[in-house]
Amino acid sequence: RHFLLCSVCSERTPKYRCPACKIRYCSLGCYKKHKDTCLPVDKPAPSNPETKAAVGTEPWSVDDLLHEDDITDKVPLQRLQMLGQSKELKDLLCNPHLRQLLCSIDGAERKEDAMKSAMQEPLFVEFSDQCLKIVENDAKSSEDADL
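The line above is the sequence of Zinc finger HIT domain-containing protein 3; the predicted structure tokens follow.
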């Protein structure tokens, strides 16, 4: 596994990816510096007008959210399932403000904008950091947990 550096400060390993332009960054500070110069990647409009109407009517899977060019960011299902077993995440999710933030992101028409806004909230940053810590756990950490 090769290690990347933050596209903003070039000092640390990036934990995040800009939803608009896909560059990688390591912290909220770097994101704030980056967002002023962010150049969003244009996405082609759906060619089928019925596509939008079908959203939410059929069950979706994790694979539906991923594109082939994002394969480096794909998290194994086993790691995703670890999110549901985390006491720390469950404790954070007891906070009604966090639940409201997550619902507003989920229901947002423009999810990228909703995520940018949520990343301004320290509570949401703490939640996303905790999620990343769980899914990015090295095999060594998993072995330690088994002891």
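Note on the example: Residues 22 and 70 are 10 Å apart (CA to CA). The beta strands are 16-17, 24-25.
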